[in-house]
Design a protein that fits this description.
It is built from seven helices and ten strands. The protein is α/β, with parallel strands linked by helices and about 230 residues long. The strands form two sheets. Strands 6-7-8-3-9-10 form a six-stranded mixed beta sheet, with helices on both faces. A four-stranded antiparallel beta sheet has the order 2-1-4-5, covered by helices on one side. Strand 7, helix 6 and strand 8 form a beta-alpha-beta unit. Helix 3 runs parallel beside helix 5 and helix 4 packs across helix 5. The chain binds adenosine-5'-diphosphate (ADP) and magnesium ion. The site of adenosine-5'-diphosphate (ADP) has 12 residues, from helix 1.
Length: about 230
């Protein structure tokens, strides 16, 4: 779950990024966050994971109070949120299996649990047959599936995907979005950031549009009713 109340962000160099963001996402929701380049989408993502501190306002993510969270609790907050990036961020020298297992080792999961869980999530994303492949042996869509498996492996309550299809062709993009939809249907809250209007309109979801650091619409279904954007 996410609650942002009147959140503002001005970067240290004086760039304003967010002005008065109010946002409520409940457990189990699927939400698209859309807006043009530099509208503040990634800043919201970074505030939600406490990578960036808000200048003013209040926020809660999965029960963690962003205003009062102690540095020692930040890893726990981040474990409750799986992140998927546009550029996949896989480790080239590790196999698909090892990329996903690594995320579990990093949080101290026992080997016995890792051995069970990694094949399960790889099967969920349709990559069980590529376990021993290296990232450079995969297509873009397959690489992003590995990243989704890695985001999912520690069983987060929410996944945030920041432009997950930015490096993929339209067909692959639909496949990745469908995968995120399936994961959401299994119970994980999903926040998907994108600026691809046609892709969003393929899915009937809640769409929050942001422009110049402000939310300008929040509704079910289509994207950009305001044709000025
Ligand atoms: N670390 C930073 N320092 C200064 N300005 C930043 C930083 N990160 C982002 N910005 C600025 O904040 C605004 C919003 O950026 P961002 O949240 O990355 O937008 P989006 O993800 O929608 O493209 C932009 O004007 C951008 O240049
Ligand atoms: Mg961005």
């Amino acid at each position: 779950m996410v609650r942002l109340l009147d959140v503002c962000k001005v970067y240290e160099n004086g760039t304003p990024a967010l002005s008065g963001i109010n946002l409520k996402i409940d457990d189990g929701e699927f939400v698209f966050l859309v807006g043009s380049s530099a509208s503040g989408k990634s800043t919201i993502v970074k505030i939600l994971t406490s990578e960036v501190k808000m200048t003013s306002g209040r926020g809660i993510v999965n029960g963690f109070n962003l205003n009062r969270i102690k540095p020692s609790k930040i890893p726990e907050l981040r474990r409750s949120v799986g992140i998927v990036f546009q550029d996949f961020r896989l480790i080239d020298k590790k196999t698909v299996y090892e990329n996903v297992a690594f995320a579990m080792r990093a949080v101290g999961a026992p080997p016995r649990i890792i051995k069970k869980r990694v094949p399960y999530v790889l099967q969920l994303v349709g990559l069980e047959h590529k376990m021993k492949s290296f990232p450079n042996e995969l297509s873009g869509g397959e690489r992003q599936r590995v990243a989704v498996a890695r985001a999912l492996v520690n069983n987060p309550s929410m996944i945030i995907a920041d432009e997950p299809t930015g490096n993929l062709d339209p067909k692959m993009s639909i496949e990745i979005m469908s995968l995120l939809e399936k994961i959401n249907e299994l119970g994980t809250t999903m926040l998907v950031v994108t600026h691809e209007r046609e892709l969003v309109n393929e899915f009937s979801k809640r769409v929050i549009a942001i422009d110049q650091g402000r939310i300008i619409s929040d509704k079910m279904g289509g994207y950009y009713q305001n044709e000025n954007l």
